[in-house]
Amino acid sequence: MNVYYQIRSSQLDRSIKGLKEHFHKSSSSSGVPYSPAIPNKRKDTPTKKPVKRPGTIRKAQNLLKQYSQHGLDGKKGGSNLIPLEGRDDMLDVETDAYIHCVSAFVKLAQSEYQLLADIIPEHHQKKTFDSLIQDALDGLMLEGENIVSAARKAIVRHDFSTVLTVFPILRHLKQTKPEFDQVLQGTAASTKNKLPGLITSMETVGAKALEDFADNIKNDPDKEYNMPKDGTVHELTSNAILFLQQLLDFQETAGAMLASQGTGTSQLGPLPHSPLQLRVQQAAAKHLYL
What we know:
- By secondary structure, the protein is mostly helical.
- It has twelve helices and no strands.
């Protein structure tokens, strides 16, 4: 049984890593969305701009660049706009690849258990399966924690566009959790608790990012001396509103982030708008010129 789980564990881990690598290569070599079911179709299909899913962070990143580069010193960083394009492309690829790998793990783990049930004696099945999935599961959890760590560092830099990678991933993890729980039924408690722990970490860092974004809108020093002379809406207000529009794709995820941390609800009361939206609106309203 040890030989069996070691062989199958290695195969499962290689499959996940191979999918990620193949996804990266496919995304970089063509604008056509990746599909492992049609690997040869790419040659006959004209290259076109991919259609982004609602969870894609590109639009919000582009809108937030200008504000993120103000920082807290009031200085603009326009010279860095071009290099950031490549970074945003990479963030999109990394986010999509991770989401695909999470889904693939669930499906492959289900298949492994079905195969195991036909080979391993019943009283050894759960322990063998638990050992079999550890390497692949630990790899996914480590990558998720690295995303959380990168988001924490981005918050310190006031680089909120990078933090947005957490939103589509967290939403997908929550959507996939019921299947995760089902496939991990019978495994050790430490195995079952890995995904909930990652979800909690992402909710914490996401709530921190949202709170800091609202606070920075309120406290940005540039707003005091750089008011529009033509009577238009302040640039900071415009960027904040556009950012909130992009967060509509993640409003349930963002709301759950804030609720899980008990953030922003006590002072605002049971209003029909999200606490984040209200806080940003209150800060931005001071700089709105008609």
